[in-house]
């Protein structure tokens, strides 16, 4: 039963229905946020980062508006919804494509913030190794759990380097391993959360970076991310200066690939072509802040692995290094 609810909308079975022009206006606002989220960041950095962290979820807004427009039988709302639907598809539609099968020139990598409160490091290490990756990057390694990871992964991953609280395990020989300084100026205590190593893979030498950028805080003004942004800038400059052509970055970057705060990295490296892989929080994943990026290579797909004892989900990625020369 449909009856009139006045000029502002209709009422269906006792539920007020918004007017078609209200739905059309909401569709235009959604389209503006999708198209100009960078502008929001420029004028309101914290709110912009917050919007960009959850940008893919605007697709649900489009779906909800579509359902209301169909119930309202509003032609103007349906036409207006074409704009945000097209923009969302342009920005994120490719991530919905099926996962490609690994080819002869693919590397499988796993990125995981294992949590400094993980009560089951043995189970976590076994779960990551069962994905059979070539490389495993871990963050929040604490002294009490580190020997467990080393012992559990040793048989299948004989090459490793640990610098501070981050580590890299590899099936392939590692060389030139060492810490990387990405500490923001405001942090005065000991803080070592990044490393660089060279993996000697069957496809040539690849510089591998593992990083754990500073956390951000959600406030009424948006995301407080100045330390994260500063650290991302330092990491971006290190990648830019990297002499090897092929680079893989694995890490908990405390930001999504849409977040302008990570532009020093996303502007220099390729991100995943397929897969959303929301990784945080593990109990109800809302965003992928655990990232896999590559230079002179394609991140063909990312996916999450089953939950471990961490508050993050592990992220596995398929990377195809290009066939160019190893050095620039």
Quaternary structure annotation: single chain
Radius of gyration, in angstroms, nearest whole number: 22 Å
Q: Please summarize the sheet with the most strands.
A: 6 strands, mixed
| Strand order within the widest beta sheet | 6-7-5-4-16-15
How many strands in all? 16
> What is the overall pLDDT average?
89
Question: Span between N and C termini?
Answer: 69 Å
The unreliable regions are: 1-9
Describe this structure as you would to a colleague.
This protein has 328 residues and is an alpha+beta fold. Helices cover 31% and strands 27% of the residues. The chain contains 9 helices and 16 strands. A hairpin with a 2-residue loop joins β6 (159-163) and β7 (166-170). The model is unreliable at 1-9 (pLDDT under 50).
Question: What is the topology?
Answer:
Elements: E1 2-4, E2 9-12, E3 15-18, H1 20-35, H2 37-43, H3 45-53, H4 58-72, H5 75-92, E4 107-113, H6 121-130, E5 135-139, H7 146-153, E6 159-163, E7 166-170, E8 174-179, E9 194-201, E10 204-212, E11 217-219, E12 222-224, H8 226-241, E13 247-252, H9 263-266, E14 290-295, E15 297-304, E16 315-321
Parallel strand pairs: 4-5, 10-13
Antiparallel strand pairs: 1-2, 2-3, 4-16, 5-7, 6-7, 8-9, 9-10, 11-12, 13-14, 15-16
Helix pairs in contact: 1-4, 1-5, 2-3, 4-5, 6-7
Please supply descriptive tags for the structure shown above.
single chain; 328 residues; alpha+beta; 5-stranded mixed sheet; 9 helices; 16 strands
């Amino acid at each position: 039963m449909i009856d009139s609810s006045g000029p502002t909308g209709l009422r269906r079975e006792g539920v007020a229905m918004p007017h078609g022009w209200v739905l059309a206006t909401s569709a235009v606002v959604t389209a503006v946020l999708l198209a100009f989220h960078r502008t929001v960041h420029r004028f309101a950095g914290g709110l912009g980062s917050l919007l960009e962290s959850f940008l893919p979820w605007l697709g649900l807004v489009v779906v909800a508006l579509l359902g209301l427009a169909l119930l309202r039988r509003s032609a103007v709302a349906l036409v207006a919804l074409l704009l945000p639907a097209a923009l969302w598809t342009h920005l994120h539609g490719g991530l919905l494509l099926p996962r490609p099968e690994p080819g002869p020139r693919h590397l499988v990598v796993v990125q995981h913030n294992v949590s400094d409160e993980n009560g089951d490091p043995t189970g976590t290490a076994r779960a990551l190794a069962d994905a059979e990756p070539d490389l495993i990057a871990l963050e929040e390694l604490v002294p009490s759990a580190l020997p467990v990871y080393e012992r559990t992964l040793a048989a299948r991953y004989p090459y490793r380097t640990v610098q501070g609280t981050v580590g890299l395990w590899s099936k392939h020989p590692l060389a030139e391993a060492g810490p990387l300084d990405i500490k923001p100026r405001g942090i005065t205590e000991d803080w070592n959360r990044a490393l660089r190593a060279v993996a000697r893979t069957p496809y040539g030498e690849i510089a591998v970076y593992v990083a754990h950028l500073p956390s951000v805080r959600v406030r009424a003004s948006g995301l407080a991310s100045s330390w994260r942004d500063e650290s991302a800038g330092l990491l971006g400059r290190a990648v830019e200066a990297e002499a090897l052509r092929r680079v893989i970055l694995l890490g908990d970057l405390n930001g999504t690939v849409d977040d302008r705060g990570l532009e020093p990295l996303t502007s220099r490296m390729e991100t995943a072509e397929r897969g959303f892989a929301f990784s945080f929080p593990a109990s109800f994943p809302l965003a992928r802040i655990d990232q896999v990026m590559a230079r002179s290579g394609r991140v063909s797909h990312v996916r999450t692995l089953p939950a471990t004892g961490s508050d993050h989900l592990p992220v596995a990625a398929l990377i195809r290094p290009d066939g160019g020369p190893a050095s620039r």
